[in-house]
């Protein structure tokens, strides 16, 4: 896999714009090229005056998930500091795994953690698709479709801890839930936290997930439920898992499932089913595991065995949502000096396999632009704010 241009992206903050093209997906560039004046007109902006008890920061990132930590690490690699606000008391390392394709790995290489993660997770060679009665419908290898493709399932916990471990001490401020966001007279942004802390930021980056308060403040609609839910889990094999490094898909009527080896001892699985509503929220993992098994009771035994070997605390159920972004109709990704990254901007369903990859791409492209702006002669003057977003 070619990674030279990716490395140059972070090593050369003042490099020509053409070097960033491999990372910029169209929705991102369309949003960034909107007029700064037109962005601000649609918001009801409160005017505040900074006081002596307000803490001042250059860049504040709201949310310490994949997008937030990757953005902070990308900035850090370019010599730009940031403060991450996370409402939880510690890193939210729950959940299972996520699949990263070659565009995600290019970003991980660029920010210096690619090989560290490769050493822990298997490279997935291909995919096999079966019917619920076990018949093979299709089978192929990823590199037959694209020789440069790289696919690995990565534990979410490990990914977050790897990012956090590369950041300076105290880069993340935990127990810091956002209560209010306002714009000041000099275009800086005032963030007020639930504990009363007030922070005046030159740049605010919203990485606060699919229910992002910052996205709501910017005029985005709530993500829409897409009509199906998913059970997910991470099975553990103390003596080693027996499966080939392939994505295994099983299709039924109104129901699909799959599993993929993550490491020599772990296998990620999911069951996705149609449902007119998300249903009641259930937190008891043993109940969730039983419901998942009931859905596929008569399916291939290997899937049921994987679920049986799953620790209860890794089983989750989530309603799946997304948000469609329409050119000239949806709000742009940035408003003044506030910008969205990852799920806060473009939540998508997991069957696309690109949620985390696009969040990683967002982070490195935005970091490149911000680092160039911070190191310019204008140092975030009025003209420099245009450099950031354009």
UniProtKB/TrEMBL annotation:
Residues 58-375 form the FAD-binding domain. Residues 1-13 have a biased composition (Low complexity). Coiled coil: none annotated. The keyword Hydrolase does not apply. It comes from the Eukaryota. Residues 1-21 are annotated as: Disordered. Keywords: Monooxygenase, Oxidoreductase. The keyword Oxidoreductase applies. This is FAD-dependent urate hydroxylase. The lineage of its organism: Eukaryota, Viridiplantae, Streptophyta, Embryophyta, Tracheophyta. Belongs to the 3-hydroxybenzoate 6-hydroxylase family. It holds the Pfam family FAD_binding_3. One of its GO terms (molecular function) is monooxygenase activity.
